[in-house]
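User: Here's a chain of 309 residues. Predict its fold as tokens.
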Amino acid sequence: MTGGKNKLKIALTGARGLIGSALAERMVASGFEVIRMTRDKSDRKNPVWNPDSGSMDEKSREKLEGLHAFIHLAGENIASGRWTKEKKEEIEQSRVQATSNLVEALSALNAPPPNFLSASAIGYYGNRGEETLTERSSVAKLDFLSGVCRDWEKSANSIKEVFPETRVVNLRFGVVLSTKGGALKTMLPPFQMGLGGPIGSGHQYMSWIDIEDVAGAIIHCLNHPEINGPVNIVSPNPASNAVFTKTLSDVIKKPAFLPMPAFAAKMVFGQMGEELLLSSTKVRPAKLEETGFKFEFPTLHNSLMHLLG
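Assistant: Prediction complete.
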């Protein structure tokens, strides 16, 4: 806990996003001083940073001196449309290149942030069927998403070339459940109309996490200096797509008997459908469990009742 004149100073990119807004609210309530990075040049209160060019003026850099941590969550939404060539370039640029640009901008600080927490995703592991994956699991044969995650983490880790003493944590997010955005918000309308159902075989695993536990897990990583490198930000109870579908339909009390065949998912969503909807990634939050993190919503039914009940 922090408080009074001893508030710990945290800078945050992606503060308006699904995860960033929930995290900022939780951190302010916990007594941290949160500095929200912005692209808006007219904003005189917050540091201005352009992720495309990496440019940051001297006044913005001055506002970042004396940080306890920099938390980097910004990135293009990967599920906002088909993965055209242009969309894939935007996704990669907003993660890999933008993170490299950020590291370069931070290298001009007089006092390096002792903690650098940067977003990644469980897409790093690729399609692995029923294999249980932890942070010690290797990267899969590269597809688009796992390749982006690998290079994204490499960009984040490059801050140690400038500041060797900085602790780096790669936050590998699973499917974040929230009614304010993400997969659940997209799925709800058809399910509420009784038009939901499993996708493909339904056997593929979804490694999910409640938005409240996302914020709590990030603060846990911040407060536990023994945590380094990749951390799986997922619940301890991954669910198959069929189980997820059944649990959601039970919670909202609507039938879910209209499956989407695999060929239809590929036809409608293309490569995004194959890597996001049909891919199976069964992930365990080993580092969070080993360091004593307590999940508020460890089971899917708990989480969906919290969000929708």
